[in-house]
Amino acid sequence: MRTRWADDVDPALPLPEYPRPQLVRPRWKNLNGIWEAAVHAPDGTPQFNHRVLVPFPVGSELSGFDHALQPDEMVTMRRSFVAPTLEPEERLRLHFGAVDQSCEVRVNGISVGRHVGGFDPFFFDITDALDDAGEQSVEVAVTDPTDTGDLPLGKQTLNPFAIQYTAVAGIWQTVWLEPVPAACIESVVAVTDLASRTVRITCAISGASTDTPVEVVVRGDDAIVGTVTGAVTADRAVLELEFADVRPWSPEDPFLYDLDVRLGPADRVIDEAASYFGAREVGVERDRAGLLRLTLNGDPVFHLGLLDQGWWPDGLYTAPTDEALAFDIEATLAMGFNTIRKHVKVEPARWYWHADRLGVLVWQDMPSTRFDMMAFGAQLGQKIAPPDMPWDEISPGRDPDTYRRELDAMMRALEAFCSIVVWVPFNEAWGQHDTDATLHHVAERDPSRLVDGPSGWVDTGTGDVRDHHIYEGPENFPGTDPKRPVVYGEYGGFKLAVDDHVWADKGWGYATTKSSDELEAAYVDLIETVTELVPRGLAGVIYTQTTDVETEINGLLTYDRAVFKVEPERLREIHTTLLRVADEAAG
Questions:
Q1: Is it the case that residue 461 has pLDDT exceeding 70?
Q2: How sure is the predictor about 376, in pLDDT bands with cuts at 50, 70 and 90?
Q3: So what's the pLDDT on residue 390?
Q4: pLDDT above 70: residue 381
């Protein structure tokens, strides 16, 4: 199965766009394209007799290398490149958007670093490994235990079925080179206080001495809004700018301010980069009836969303093109939703930039660790309620230290994106552990967002949101929570197979419909039920799901994104009364 964007993939340079929109420098070099590849024993010598199209993961159709990497195997990929000319005091970084799952990187045969974790961006300084030859070589050696290990992996499995999908391995986001000064800007994160009309901009800086000047110029609609200066202290500079009139970011008006960030004195700029931010505040407040509601910029907002898995039939973890990457967000908005729950997967940085510029609220899940679906199914067959299940058997993939490290890496990579309004550390007890401590840790690390606590099933009373998963009997509202807004973090899931647009003969869903009309009628009934619950305290719902994924065919779109199962305009119309009632209830 292929999407319509597959034919647009350029084998010479797939996904050519700049990969890091929140920190842009003009000098960079994309290393996507054809790499040599070899599958071998971890202690063996690679024989490079395969080709793989990076950054499509091994096992995907677009990669050109159809191999399911096994836990006792290693895949090594290599290519040559010409290094850019470096100015004095410059260093050359080799960036990876993401590699699944553990890797060692060698340049000209010299190990430049190792990385563990399949979802976060990382880089290595390769300057000292370069030689005087015109061409340099890079090798990336990858191992991936998939669902035989304890690392976060999301929905991957070596035995795909139902809600678990085909395993991927290797490089699955853009690889690129970037020359940087020895002292440089590492990240820019803005936090808004609308009451005082101020924005606090934190610039992480490496290699600069204390008191090195930092200047940030803020632009709105190409006009300078303000300029603020500060200095480096303890590897960062924190600057605060007061606005005469703040234009808040929201789905209705996804306005973004541009930032020009400079390190060093005006007559001797050491480093400079372009960034941006959206001025927004996320919170929880009581409505006139005393019920807790989710708020954006101080106003109640009903989160009407879709569960978005982010999988592709031709690229698996990786969208074929940047246009395809944006399409799911555009389709979500066209159907009248304002929220996406990015489900146990982290996307490339450009996905979140698209979310920021298009205007959608994002709940960001932490990818879950190993979850034994067969054990779970057996327990359900015995009619054991989820809280009473033997979780050590059902969720054996628990490595608290690695999980916390990767959780922090995800938050660090994504904290600059204003569209993310909720962190979801745990989904349905999949590897759930140290719940209260983990949720408190997330809240302390990022007080600018809400923490879902956790999503579905085993709730401990912690977090900012009480999240239920209700696929049967959504009308049976479990009641309000005295301290947290109540949401349905998953519900719906109506199955509909569309001829010529299914992954396999047999498909799976939470409830079956047999035609588009029947699906529409079932969805209308569901939304009417939700509408009746809003005045009772329901603050948001996430419908399962955006698209079909492999044999799971409960999407509002087919897996190839070719067919809307219900017309987007009709879905927008269906949502009208719900959103009006939500506004009235909160007002």
A1: yes
A2: low
A3: 58
A4: no
Q: Would you state the pLDDT for residue 322?
A: 98
For residues 127 and 143, membership in a common domain is answered with yes
- Per-residue model confidence as pLDDT tens digits over 278-323: 999 999 999 999 999 999 999 999 999 999 999 999 999 999 999 9
Distance CA 243, CA 403 (A): 39
Whether residues 72 and 50 share a domain: the answer is yes
Do 213 and 327 belong together in one domain? Answer: no
The confidence score (pLDDT) of residue 371 equals: 75
Note whether 178 and 28 are within 8 A (CB): yes
Instruction: Among 233, 259, 277, identify where a domain stops.
Output: 277
Residues 60 and 175 grouped into a single domain: yes
Q: How confident is the model at residue 433 (pLDDT cuts 50, 70, 90)?
A: confident
What is the residue whose two structure tokens read 């922090």? 408
On whether residue 368 sits in a domain, the answer given is yes
CA–CA–CA angle 462, 464, 468 (5° rounding): 80
* Bridge partners for 455 per DSSP: 427, 467
pLDDT at 505: 80
554 & 525 share domain: yes
- The pair phi, psi for residue 334, each rounded to 5°, is -65, -30
Residue with tokens 């300084």: 125
Contact between 586 and 290 (Cβ < 8 Å): no
The CATH number for 327's domain is: 3.20.20.80
CATH code, 267: 2.60.40.10
The tokens for 78 are 């290599």
Question: 140 and 18, same structural domain?
Answer: yes
Q: What is the predicted pLDDT for the residue at 373?
A: 66
Domain of residue 106: give its range: 6-181
State the pLDDT confidence band at 378, using cuts at 50, 70 and 90: low
Closest CA to 544 of 448, 481, 472, 477: 472
| 504 and 359 fall within a common domain | yes
Q: Cβ distance 539 to 485 under 8 Å?
A: yes
Percent of the chain scored above 90 by pLDDT?
A: 88
Last residue in a domain, options 181, 206, 240:
181
The domain tally of the chain equals: 3
DSSP code for 91: E
Write out the DSSP string of 455-517: ESS---S-SSEEEEEESS-TTS-----SSS-EEEEEEE-EE---TT--SSSS-B-SEE--SHH
For residue 187, is it within any domain? Answer: no
In degrees, rounded to 5, the angle at the alpha carbon of residue 427 between the alpha carbons of residues 400 and 121 is 60
* Residue-level pLDDT at 100: 97
Domain contains 562? yes
Question: Who has greater pLDDT, 399 or 539?
Answer: 539
Identify whether residues 158 and 305 lie together within a single domain. Answer: no
Identify whether 451 is part of a domain.
yes
**Contact, 161 vs 203, CB < 8 A?**
no
| Residue 278: count of CB within 10 angstroms of its CB | 22
Q: Is 234 exposed, middle or buried (0-12, 13-18, 19+ CB in 10 A)?
A: exposed
